[in-house]
Amino acid sequence: MDKKLIGIDLGGTTIKFAILTTDGDVQQKWSIETNSLDEGRHIVPDIIESINHRISLYEMKQEDFIGIGMGTPGSVDIKKGTVVGAYNLNWTKKQNVKIQIEEATGIPFVLDNDANVAALGERWKGAGENNPDVVFITLGTGVGGGIIAEGNLLHGVNGCAGEIGHVTVDPGGFECTCGKRGCLETVSSATGVVRVARHMSEEYAGDSQLKQAIDDGQDVSSKDVFDYAQAEDAFALMVVDRVCYFLGLAVGNVSNTLNPSSVVIGGGVSAAGEFLRSRVQNYFEEFTFPEVRNSTQVKLAQLGNEAGVIGAASLALQFMEKV
Amino acid sequence: MDKKLIGIDLGGTTIKFAILTTDGDVQQKWSIETNSLDEGRHIVPDIIESINHRISLYEMKQEDFIGIGMGTPGSVDIKKGTVVGAYNLNWTKKQNVKIQIEEATGIPFVLDNDANVAALGERWKGAGENNPDVVFITLGTGVGGGIIAEGNLLHGVNGCAGEIGHVTVDPGGFECTCGKRGCLETVSSATGVVRVARHMSEEYAGDSQLKQAIDDGQDVSSKDVFDYAQAEDAFALMVVDRVCYFLGLAVGNVSNTLNPSSVVIGGGVSAAGEFLRSRVQNYFEEFTFPEVRNSTQVKLAQLGNEAGVIGAASLALQFMEKV
């Protein structure tokens, strides 16, 4: 039997698992609830128990696996295999994840942060088409990202490479949770889209259902903004245009800098699909020089929820090939 | 005897050569004039003759060399070792550089574009301190750059990685030779600095020697702008501040994206030294998030004219290690 990979996507609500071939085909997948009680001390034991249970359920052995990869929130120390500051897991203190999982499963383990791991997934089996240069941007509650360049996942000197959410797109703009102003995240995350809508609604005088909903104090979401825009609400279209301007500027500049074969946009906000992508594309074209404009593609993510487990398996495969 | 490297820096005026150790120490260096007559057809033969002459002069043999690296203007095909569109060499048609040089010297040859090669030089033996993640920006007639990430020189899908001169820093700003607007090059190259000065002088009403020189139709250079600013000309200080704002925005965003250990600024405009660097640093701090601000350094280039030959030797060393 060909050796297999295990991919884990550790999230605040669920922990997703998959067993994959070295070609990236998902053979088994399952998930368990994340138990973040007691400072998250049950999480690693739960992961171990779930893996060992499934391995025996499928009548497999530890020797059947090349390695386990995992994407996690928080700050990671890749070499040591530790995580700290993953607040949605209640992991405020440093967690020795790698040592515990390797000891209890007998399988080599590697981890990285969740956005980087999702980037590896979209690059391997999704929109990135396994090209050596792919940039991934995820528009969710925040804006994260990951960069693969010349086949390598980038980390930078302090692990911050790929933090495209904190690229300054609007100097002097909205204040960000990071402490500076005008970050991409402030205008293109799910909350950012709504922030832009609220801000622009103060100036907008015309007829608009979106403006009315905001003025009425309704609980407007990013999805509402895009839904109104797709229904041709003039104000909502202005809001979407503004969001796509900032996205196009950021996507354009990361492309001017790295010239990837594709910039892949994922996350909840990207559910707006081609409606969003085509508008980002227009500004991308305005903000890139010809040689980049004609070689770098702006794409939508393709793997959805599976990007995490697939990317985690890719991480394990890459890492074990290097050692 | 330990094997040596040959580095070549091919420019429009001179061709610089050096023989280096594998530690990057320059043991011999020399240069010849670039003869770009007859569509530049003498250039490659001149390079070959010069190398073979020096090798015999130093009583060395082709076996004493690991390889030859070269930085060149124009568009390069790294695999084929060809160059096209190097207009300052009159190389409008494709030149088969690699084949000719390897056949005539018997030494393996590799080339890359000059900004990438200078980046390798500054990374190896200059301000980059041989770290795996270094970004280099050169402020000359144009603005070029090169990126080393996880130890690899980046190229991107179409060879445009590192073209930081065409990052959009001023949407709707000055038109660039590339066809789009607001490129870093339009406001921070030698001509860009003067462009900013001329543009701002139209609005400036106060007393200023720089403004007077511009209004008198004098031939003001980028160096003049910095000289006036260092002499505390109020208008020149405003111009320098504007230039450093754009540089700080671009350097900040490439750092938010890649988190290199350093962004190294070189080229003619960087002759303004710490006066320039400290002002770029201030805006860099405004435009980066804390984890990047505290880990990425903004530095001045250290190798000057030697960056090209040293980087070319680094290119040869890296390339030959891979094959």
From TrEMBL, chains A, B:
The keyword Nucleotide-binding applies. It comes from the Bacteria. Its EC number is 2.7.1.2. Keywords: ATP-binding, Kinase, Nucleotide-binding, Transferase. The keyword ATP-binding applies. One of its GO terms (molecular function) is glucokinase activity. One of its GO terms (biological process) is glycolytic process. GO terms for cellular component: cytoplasm. Belongs to the ROK (NagC/XylR) family. This is Glucokinase. It comes from Enterococcus ureilyticus. The lineage of its organism: Bacteria, Bacillati, Bacillota, Bacilli, Lactobacillales.
